[in-house]
Structure formats: structure tokens, C-alpha cells
Q: What sequence folds into this?
């Protein structure tokens, strides 16, 4: 009898547990939302630096709208192109699992949205939270077409740090006192480097140190003792930046939508494409404090040597009343423009919060040289050969300067089985081995123009070592891999030594990123699992370098079954 009662109790317990689990799953899925937005790409008058320009914007906003979602949510964004240029949109850092059709790079995963046309991007956030962003991925339109993409944890899941009083997106940008597309057009014609920007911006405003800009300077109010979360995004086109807030310490808690072991610093270095989340506690004397950003320039090349500012404004600071006289804000101490030691000191402190899963048995061991080059001209005096010594600038990965196709996008050609658009013979190592960071023979300065992809089997464990070269100049190249994030397992200066350097790899708690810089005159190593089928662009996020060909793409083959295969393209996918 006791046994029978025990059995009944067990059955009843299992029944109620099953009901609880079913309702739990229903509650989980009911939490996820679908966000419908319309992004109208259009020219609007924007006044900066005393002059008004017809600037390409989204919904008339510069920067564009901030998207706020939760992990598990779906976004349905109709992009309507009312501008005069072809355009695509990229959701930077979103994994886009099995869905390259929503990734956005022009001529890679889609043909462009032509003027007067539209395309609806549909994608779901899967197991990601933190700060990402979106931007145009056609030519130089992203100079003004960009915005924040904030992914909050699922309901009921807290941050792994104390809840901040406020969360503030801080978008760092560049501004040209002319049409950025014209700047690129002239550079394309002459073969020379494009003109540098005229200002940096914080949330679209240059700040107090530029002409006609003081009235628009962004102010962030804060109460004494409050802790706020700054979601810093480098949306600049071509420049790595140092960023800091006067007299305040910044606690780094995440990069590229991946949490980190918290550490405190007075300055961060952030490359185009990267995001950094920092906690700031208002623990200073109530007043006005500049937050500022200026260039970290690792190359022997011209750059914009100005400084953008915003103001951290204590609510109880003297002079905050309408008629009160405000004190001059205190300025932060930022490193010098060429302070590589400070840049490396910051990035070397990044770690994952705990032990992470890093591929240990490597299937694809790739060694990629990244850097600039020069194309020789038959007529060096030509107006189309205004680069150094009558050449044209170029850039490459493993001496292959990437050429975007014209007849179709790579992904559409692959899916449709269209031949003649690309080849899959991208070299896994440089065609010629040389002293990459030494005095390189001029015979190795000219890359080969091609549209070559590297094929990966689904599930392959991949290691890439990015090796900077001294061709033209050494430089920190922020390399961005679409469709993936990766473990940054090591870096160093000089030439990578495959016999000695792997012994120093961090295979325990490396940080995860989607964009990583090569130390100037050095190397950086990453690992990831090729678990996302499709064609995925990898490129330098300095857009002048991307335009010169510093890119390649991976073709990740389908695995087994529907859940390891690319989903069919949407019906409204643009055609070339």
C-alpha cells in the first residue's frame, strides 16, 4: 500500500512538473517580441561647422534611430531608399545564424537597394546581449548612416554587474565638411588617399572645440553618487580613438556585446566597428566634466588631429540654473596620438569573465598578412595615379586585393549556382614568405586584384593569425568578421613565430570580439568554430582600406539538415 501511494505521488509530481515546464517554455517564448521599424534613407539638411549640407540620414536623424531590443527578439526593418545612392544596411555584430540575407554588405550577401526601392531585413537575436550597432554598408554612406543597437538581457535575467541608474549610448563619429561620397569619388579617381575628416563627433555633435559648435555640444546629466552605463561605439569611418572622462574612472564590463572581467581605467582605445561598455560613478565634486575623444594614429599617414567633446553635467553643479554662470569644464588626460603603449595596455587587459570554450584541435590553420600596397601605373604622370611616386593606393589580405562583383552578389551567385562570379582558391598563407615587418622589397608591394573566397566545412575549428606588414606603413588594422564572434587568444609585435608564440596563447579566458586590431608591426590570433553557413565578409573596418581591397570572404558550407543550412532567401531580396 505504501508502495502504491509512493507511485501515485511520483506520477502526480511528474505530471505537475511537466505542466510547469510547458508553461515555462510558453512564458519564455511569449517574452520575445517582434519589433517593426521603417528606416527611410533620405537626404536632410544638417548644419555642422557653420555650414549646412544635404546629408544622407535615416528618418531625418543624424545619428540614426537607436534600436533597443532583448535577447531572443526579432527585428523586421523595412529599409526605404529615398536617397540618390544605392544603399544596404548592416547589423554589425549580429550573428545572423543561417541568415546571411539579412547581413547587408553590398555585393556580398545582397545586391544594393536602388533609389526608390525598398528591402525588409528580418532577423532574430540569438544568445547575444550588450552593445552593437547598425550602419550602411555601401561605399562611404556609413559616414552618416549609423545608429546604436542595444540588446538587453531576457526578462528576469540581470546584468552581471550592479544595475546602473541610466544607460547612455555614446556614438563616436567623423564629419567631413563636404559630401563624404564626393571625397571617396575623388580618391577613387586619383588613386591617392582620401581627404581626412574635418571633425570628430559625439552623438553627431563636434563639441566645444570646433567653430559654430558650442550650442550643440551634447550634455549628459548625472546625479551625485549615481552610476551610469556608457555604451561607447566607434562609428568613425577611418580612425581609432582614445576616449575618457575628466577625473572619472571607467569600469570596463563588456566589449562587442560580450561581457568581460571588470577592470578600471581612465582611458579606453576603441577602433572603428568596436563597442565598449563602461560603468561611470559620479563621485567627484559636482561640476562639469568633459568627455573627449581624439585620434590614436598608428600609421605614418595624415590624420584628423582634432578633439571632440561632450559634457558630463552634475545636476547639482554650480551654474546649472538658467541664469547661473557655468564653470569651464575640466578636460581629461588622453594619451598622445601615437601612444601605442597605452593602446596595447588597454586591449591586453580584456578577459572573459570566466573560462570559455575555445577550439583546441584546429582544422584550418590560416596565416593572413594584412596591409597596404601600391599599384604601379604605366603612365605615372596620369591624373589617375596620384599616389606615392605616381602609383595608386591598394590594400590586401595575403597579397589578394578584394574586388566586389558587379553582376551579382556573392551569396546570391552561390545560392543560384551562377558560375564566373568568384573562385574558392583564396590562399591560406601568403604566396611568398618574407620579413613581414622588416624592409620589404618593392617587388612585393603590388597586390593581385581578385574575387577569391576561402571555403570552410561546417563545424571546422579555425585559427587565423593576422600579420601586419610594413608595406607603405605599419598600422593597426581593425579586422571585422561578419556572422561570427571569435576568441582573441594572443598578440605580439614583430613577425609571428609559429614555434614559440602559441605557447603564450590564452586558451582559458580570452575575450570574445567581432572586430580586433592588429598591433602596428605585429600580429593577433583568433579562433572560432565555423557554425554559421553562408558567405561572410571579413575586412578592415577602416573604410578607406576596405575600398582599396583589404578584405576577403569565407564560404561556410552547409552542414547536415535544415538547422545547419542556409535558409531560403526572402522574396523581396534586391536583384543586381
A:
Amino acid at each position: 500500500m505504501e508502495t502504491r501511494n509512493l507511485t501515485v505521488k511520483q506520477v502526480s509530481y511528474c505530471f505537475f512538473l511537466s505542466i510547469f515546464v510547458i508553461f515555462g517554455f510558453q512564458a519564455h517564448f511569449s517574452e520575445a517580441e517582434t519589433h517593426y521599424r521603417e528606416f527611410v534613407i533620405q537626404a536632410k539638411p544638417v548644419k555642422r561647422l557653420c555650414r549646412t549640407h544635404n546629408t544622407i540620414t535615416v528618418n531625418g536623424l543624424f545619428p540614426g534611430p537607436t534600436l533597443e531590443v532583448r535577447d531572443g527578439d526579432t527585428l523586421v526593418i523595412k529599409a526605404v531608399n529615398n536617397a540618390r545612392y544605392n544603399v544596404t544596411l548592416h547589423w554589425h555584430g549580429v550573428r545572423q545564424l543561417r541568415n546571411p540575407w539579412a547581413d547587408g554588405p553590398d555585393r556580398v550577401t545582397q545586391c544594393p537597394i536602388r533609389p526608390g526601392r525598398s528591402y525588409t531585413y528580418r532577423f532574430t537575436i540569438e544568445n547575444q546581449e550588450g552593445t552593437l550597432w547598425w550602419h550602411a554598408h555601401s561605399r562611404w554612406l556609413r559616414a552618416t548612416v549609423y545608429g546604436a543597437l542595444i540588446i538587453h538581457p531576457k526578462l528576469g535575467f540581470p546584468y552581471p554587474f550592479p544595475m546602473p541608474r541610466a544607460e547612455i549610448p555614446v556614438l563616436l563619429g567623423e564629419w567631413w565638411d563636404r559630401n563624404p561620397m564626393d571625397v571617396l569619388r575623388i580618391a577613387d579617381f586619383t588613386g591617392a588617399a582620401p581627404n581626412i575628416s574635418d571633425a570628430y563627433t559625439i552623438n553627431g555633435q563636434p563639441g566645444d572645440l570646433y567653430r559654430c559648435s558650442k550650442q550643440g555640444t551634447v550634455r549628459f546629466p548625472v546625479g551625485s553618487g549615481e552610476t551610469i552605463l556608457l555604451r561607447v561605439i566607434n562609428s568613425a569611418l577611418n580612425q581609432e580613438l582614445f576616449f575618457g572622462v575628466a577625473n572619472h574612472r571607467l569600469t570596463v564590463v563588456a566589449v562587442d556585446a560580450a561581457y568581460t572581467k571588470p577592470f578600471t581605467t581612465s582611458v579606453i582605445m576603441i577602433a572603428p566597428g568596436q563597442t565598449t561598455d563602461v560603468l561611470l560613478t559620479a563621485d567627484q565634486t559636482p561640476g562639469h566634466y568633459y568627455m573627449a575623444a581624439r585620434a590614436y594614429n598608428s600609421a605614418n599617414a595624415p590624420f584628423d588631429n582634432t578633439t571632440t567633446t561632450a559634457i558630463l553635467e552634475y545636476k547639482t553643479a554650480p551654474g546649472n540654473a538658467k541664469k547661473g554662470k557655468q564653470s569651464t569644464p575640466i578636460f581629461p588626460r588622453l594619451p598622445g596620438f601615437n601612444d601605442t603603449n597605452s593602446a596595447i595596455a588597454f586591449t591586453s587587459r580584456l578577459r572573459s569573465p570566466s573560462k570559455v570554450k575555445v577550439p583546441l584541435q584546429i582544422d584550418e590553420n590560416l596565416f593572413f598578412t594584412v596591409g597596404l600596397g601600391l599599384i604601379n601605373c604605366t603612365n605615372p604622370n596620369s591624373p589617375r595615379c596620384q599616389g606615392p611616386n605616381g602609383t595608386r593606393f591598394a590594400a590586401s589580405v595575403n597579397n589578394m586585393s578584394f574586388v566586389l562583383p558587379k553582376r551579382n552578389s556573392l551569396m546570391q551567385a552561390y545560392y543560384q549556382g551562377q558560375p564566373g562570379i568568384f573562385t574558392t582558391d583564396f590562399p591560406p598563407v601568403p604566396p611568398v614568405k618574407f620579413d613581414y615587418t622588416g624592409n620589404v622589397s618593392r617587388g612585393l608591394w603590388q597586390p593581385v586584384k581578385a574575387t577569391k573566397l576561402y571555403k570552410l566545412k561546417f563545424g571546422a575549428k579555425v585559427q587565423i593569425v593576422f600579420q601586419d606588414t610594413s608595406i607603405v606603413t605599419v598600422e593597426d588594422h581593425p579586422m571585422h568578421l561578419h556572422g561570427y564572434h571569435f576568441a582573441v587568444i594572443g598578440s605580439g609585435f614583430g613577425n609571428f613565430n609559429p614555434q614559440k608564440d602559441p605557447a603564450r596563447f590564452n586558451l582559458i579566458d580570452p575575450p570574445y570580439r567581432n572586430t580586433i586590431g592588429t598591433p602596428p608591426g605585429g600580429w593577433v590570433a583568433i579562433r572560432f568554430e565555423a557554425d554559421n553557413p553562408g558567405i561572410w565578409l571579413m575586412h578592415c573596418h577602416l573604410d578607406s582600406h576596405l575600398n582599396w581591397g583589404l578584405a576577403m570572404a569565407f564560404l561556410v558550407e552547409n552542414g547536415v539538415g535544415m538547422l545547419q543550412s542556409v535558409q531560403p532567401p526572402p522574396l523581396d531580396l534586391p536583384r543586381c
Remarks:
- The longest strand covers residues 34-48.
- Residues 1-29 have pLDDT under 50 and may be disordered.
- The first helix runs from residue 2 to 31.
- The two ends are 77 Å apart (CA to CA).
